[in-house]
């Protein structure tokens, strides 16, 4: 749908984590082919699709081929050792595209998790909607670091906070440019109204589309502290999809089932899900954010519809298409009525008001500083221990080489040489980590801390009351004499 100047009056968006890890993701190729087929057949067709965890280029090519008639333009972004896994499909031409890698993005020592190696970041595409200077749409697609641990033990919480801080800067930069619309989509690996969520919505002029449409939706799974404090009843599987927007860990997703139930699927059994079954683990990790302001002061962007999508199973394999469900939203360009405000008028006014002032409250800034201090202390300790291991390995290596000279048997000498080699190799790895990775990460933490301190100082200055100048009640001579030393 387009208005009189040819620009769209509404934009349909969709984001999906495809779970497309080479050699690791089960039934990867068949699932992603079906994802492409479903995207190409969606009614109404999406205008922009953001994909995460699409690491195999042939998978992205297959999705592009299946969606070519409705989404003729696309870009797979490359970063890191294994690729960022971020792709954007679009109805409109991609005028510019750039990849912004996160400076804090996991640790190389956690090689089995892979976050550090894939070079996670923000894929930024500028789409050309019309010939005018500001007739472009900025689309930011991201996949942030996964938690892997419970809230209190999450050693990557600082990284995720830094990533959202960085993305908020990019969104402010995008919103400051002449543009038709600014959106951010992806797998943010955060819960609604959590600290990372507040960083993005307080430091960038964007709104969470789902929270706009469902302001009373859950803040996480049932066991999550803030959600438990609300005292709400345990949601059903259907309610978690329709109202809470649970895209991960829900009962409907077959990849979260027990091994026994998954084996039944492989045998061709239907395994239906009771819509009224209690769903304690479902949570919302995938988001669509948008800037409500438009290029025209008489209009603004509102949420027309938003829902969880691509929940159907594979027709032959009977499994969910990914370990996440998709989120789809339709944003509508809206002009407020002069009289008798409508529901969309109220929504637009609230969205504009929520994005009018940027900045985290002092309590959140203090929480961020504590997070940075704790993680910095952890990394300093890790660097010291790994450096000690390097020096200790040199001593053991030298001791083994000396012992070889006094070895009475050849097999003992061989074992000593083998031990010396292994100890030296592991020591060199830890030495390089201490010298290169941990030093680099500590510098990035220092930069992050400086930015947070600067934000706290700016917030304090903005809250400080202005001191009015003293008004003179007499002549200048009286004022001077009263201020002169006696």
Automatic annotation (TrEMBL):
InterPro entries, per database record: Endo/exonu/phosph_ase_sf (IPR036691), Endo/exonuclease/phosphatase (IPR005135), Sph/SMPD2-like (IPR038772)
Membrane topology category: Multi-pass membrane protein
Biased composition (Basic and acidic residues): 476-486
Major place of residence: membrane
GO biological process, one term: sphingolipid metabolic process
Compartments reported by the entry: Membrane
Biased composition (Low complexity): 458-468
Keyword Transmembrane: yes
A Gene Ontology molecular function term of the record: metal ion binding
Pfam families: Exo_endo_phos
Domain spans labelled Endonuclease/exonuclease/phosphatase: 14-324
Keywords: Hydrolase, Lipid metabolism, Magnesium, Membrane, Metal-binding, Sphingolipid metabolism, Transmembrane, Transmembrane helix
Signal peptide start and end residues: none
Region annotation Disordered: where it falls in the sequence: 458-486
Keyword Transmembrane helix: yes
Pathway: Lipid metabolism; sphingolipid metabolism; Sphingolipid metabolism
Superkingdom of the source species: Eukaryota
One GO cellular component term noted in the UniProt record for this chain: membrane
Residues spanning the membrane: 388-406, 412-438
Record PANTHER family: PHOSPHODIESTERASE, PUTATIVE-RELATED, SPHINGOMYELINASE FAMILY MEMBER
Family per similarity comment: Belongs to the neutral sphingomyelinase family.
Stated name of the protein: Endonuclease/exonuclease/phosphatase domain-containing protein
């Amino acid at each position: 749908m387009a208005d009189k100047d040819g620009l769209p009056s509404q934009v349909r968006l969709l984001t999906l984590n495809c779970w497309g890890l080479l050699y690791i993701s089960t039934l990867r190729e068949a699932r992603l082919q079906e994802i492409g087929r479903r995207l190409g057949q969606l009614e109404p067709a999406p205008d922009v699709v953001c994909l995460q965890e699409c690491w195999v280029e042939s998978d992205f090519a297959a999705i592009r081929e299946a969606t070519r008639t409705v989404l003729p333009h696309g870009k797979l972004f490359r970063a890191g050792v294994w690729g960022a896994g971020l792709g954007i499909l679009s109805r409109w031409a991609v005028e510019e595209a750039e990849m912004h890698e996160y400076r804090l993005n996991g640790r190389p020592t956690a090689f089995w998790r892979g976050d550090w190696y894939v070079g996670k970041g923000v894929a930024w595409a500028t789409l050309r909607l019309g010939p005018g200077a500001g007739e472009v749409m900025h689309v930011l697609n991201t996949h942030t670091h996964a938690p892997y641990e419970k809230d209190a033990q999450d050693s990557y919480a600082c990284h995720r906070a830094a990533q959202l801080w960085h993305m908020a800067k990019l969104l402010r930069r995008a919103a400051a440019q002449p543009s038709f619309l600014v959106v951010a989509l992806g797998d943010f690996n955060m819960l609604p109204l959590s600290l990372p969520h507040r960083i993005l919505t307080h430091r960038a002029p964007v709104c969470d589309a789902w929270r706009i449409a469902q302001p009373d939706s859950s803040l996480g799974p049932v066991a999550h502290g803030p959600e438990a404090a609300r005292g709400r009843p345990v949601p059903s599987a259907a309610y978690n999809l329709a109202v809470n927007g649970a895209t991960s860990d829900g009962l409907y997703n077959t990849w979260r089932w027990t091994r026994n139930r998954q084996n039944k699927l492989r045998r061709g059994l239907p395994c239906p899900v009771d819509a009224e079954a209690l769903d304690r683990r479902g949570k919302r990790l995938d988001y669509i954010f948008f800037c409500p302001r438009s290029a025209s002061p008489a209009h603004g962007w509102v949420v027309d519809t938003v829902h969880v999508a691509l929940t159907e199973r594979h027709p032959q394999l009977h499994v969910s298409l990914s370990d996440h469900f998709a989120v789809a939203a339709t944003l509508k360009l809206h002009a407020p009525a002069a009289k008798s405000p409508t529901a969309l008028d109220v929504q637009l006014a609230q969205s504009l008001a929520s994005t009018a002032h940027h900045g985290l409250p002092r309590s959140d800034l203090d929480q961020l500083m504590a997070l940075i201090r704790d993680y910095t202390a952890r990394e300093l300790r890790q660097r010291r221990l790994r450096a000690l291991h390097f020096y200790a390995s040199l001593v053991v290596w030298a001791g083994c080489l000396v012992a070889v000279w006094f070895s009475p048997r050849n097999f003992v000498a061989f074992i000593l040489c083998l031990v010396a080699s292994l100890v030296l190799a592991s020591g060199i790895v830890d030495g390089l980590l201490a010298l290169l990775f941990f030093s680099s990460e500590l510098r990035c933490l220092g930069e992050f801390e400086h930015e947070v301190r600067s934000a706290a100082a700016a917030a304090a200055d903005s809250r400080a009351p202005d001191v009015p100048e003293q008004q003179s009640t007499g002549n200048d001579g009286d004022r001077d004499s009263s201020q002169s030393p006696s």
